[in-house]
Design brief:
Blueprint (H helix, E strand, L loop, with lengths): L2 H9 L19 E2 H11 L7 E4 L4 E3 L2 H6 L4 E4 L11 E2 L3 E5 L5 E5 L7 E4 L9 H6 L14 H10 L3 E4 L6 H9 L1 H10 L1 H26 L5 E5 L12 H22 L4 E5 L8 H7 L3 E3 L10 H8 L4 E3 L8 H4 L2 H15 L5 E2 L12 H14 L5
Parallel strand pairs: 4-9, 9-10, 10-11, 11-12, 12-13, 13-14
Antiparallel strand pairs: 1-3, 2-3, 5-6, 6-7, 7-8
Length: 384
């Protein structure tokens, strides 16, 4: 099987020859540039300057030698957006910038592992329809965002890879939280629904404009297209189901429906951290095909129950290993055991792409990364 055939087979809830693998096709399945440098050195590979794909998170693209060594099956297209298209001001100890949304980010040169958000432009403003209508929103439909990506997609397919296309920004609710600050944004949903809804609609429109342009250009050459919104915490949901269904779900459903119409052969990937079990029936109803990161260490996200209850309706892309504890702090043997356990649960019948629970962070020892992928290679084969 080619990598693309392997991915498409598992997305159809059928068993390929082995469990497909993702590494850094997206901004939520990637690897820290620091961890990547350490990994190459550990493997004795020639040193290479990491290709940063998301500067805010400081994650990078794997080179072809790493892709081949670890059996990675999918490559991502990276549109121009606020995580990779900005100019910093050097402030001595820090780098900072205001992005296209008006958000302020800062990076500590000596100790920083990623950029921190320090400015939410609407945090102190009393938002109104007039204020929101006059705000300088980004043009999501700018053609420059996807310039050159069609050629990349075709080259990826010719090389046998599945092709992944990400969104232009974080989720609808998450962007509202960044712009308003978390407390304001969440309170708005309860006591100022009209203006909160107007803000969400403005963000939705940026996304719709992006997907219009992106899928006009790329809809026939992509296999997976992604949206996101972080609705879960480690223990519960960030907002109530009633608020989700009233304020968020109709807008997410409109967005997903639009994406499906523009790219009917592509699969919809949705990233939402934490405990999202209660939302999964709504996700499936909206047309979401793939769940990521499959936060199996959060309450209610036990792998066996997820697979039993939802495995026929949604693909699990992630959940391969605990990146909060096991991957950075466990022994290689502990990592091997956990990878095997999760593959044994998620892999039967297809519908599983191996990835960590979110990005591999800077503190992960390279020997643990190698142990993880060696375990996937050992335990991820399907018996025919």
């Amino acid at each position: 099987m080619t990598s693309r055939e392997r991915i498409l087979t598992t997305l159809q809830h059928k068993e390929p020859d082995r469990v497909p693998v993702d590494l850094a096709s997206t901004q939520v399945t990637g690897i820290s540039a620091i961890a990547y440098k350490n990994l190459r050195q550990y493997l004795g590979l020639p040193p290479k300057e990491p290709q940063i794909c998301d500067a805010i998170q400081q994650i990078c693209l794997p080179d072809d030698d790493i892709m081949e060594k670890f059996g990675v099956d999918v490559k991502g297209l990276w549109p121009l957006m606020n995580a990779n298209d900005f100019t910093d001001t050097d402030e001595g100890d820090t780098l900072s910038h205001i992005d296209e949304w008006g958000l302020g980010y800062r990076f500590n040169k000596a100790e920083g592992l990623w950029y921190d958000l320090y400015l939410s432009p609407m945090e102190s403003a009393a938002i109104s329809a007039d204020y929101l209508d006059k705000y300088p929103w980004p043009d999501g439909g700018e053609k420059r965002r996807v310039a050159g990506l069609r050629e990349q997609a075709i080259a990826f397919r010719e090389a046998g890879y599945a092709v992944f296309l990400k969104s232009v920004c974080a989720g609808i609710l998450e962007m509202a939280i960044r712009l308003r600050g978390m407390e304001n944004a969440l309170v708005d949903l309860l006591i100022d629904k009209e203006n909160a809804g107007h803000l969400l609609d403005k963000i939705l429109q940026v996304k719709l404009d992006y997907w219009q342009t992106a899928l006009d250009e790329l809809g026939d050459v992509v296999d997976v297209i992604a949206e996101a919104d972080d609705f879960g915490t480690q223990t519960s949901q960030l907002i109530s189901m009633a608020t989700f269904r009233e304020m968020i779900k109709p807008r997410q459903a409109e967005l997903i429906s639009f994406m499906k119409k523009k790219a009917p052969n592509a699969h919809i990937f949705f990233h939402s951290c934490g405990n999202v079990r209660e939302l999964l029936p709504d996700f499936i109803e909206m047309g979401i095909d793939i769940l990521n990161p499959v936060h199996i260490t959060a309450a209610g996200m036990e792998p066996e129950k997820l697979k039993k209850d939802f495995g026929k309706d949604i693909v699990f892309w992630g959940g391969g290993i605990n990146t909060q504890d096991t991957l950075p702090h466990g022994t290689p043997e502990k990592i091997r055991e956990e990878v095997k356990r999760n593959i044994d649960v998620f892999a039967p019948g297809g519908g599983f792409v191996f990835n960590t629970i979110h990005n591999i962070q800077a503190d992960v020892p390279p020997e643990n990364i190698v142990a993880m992928y060696e375990a996937v290679a050992e335990f991820g084969k399907y018996l025919k």
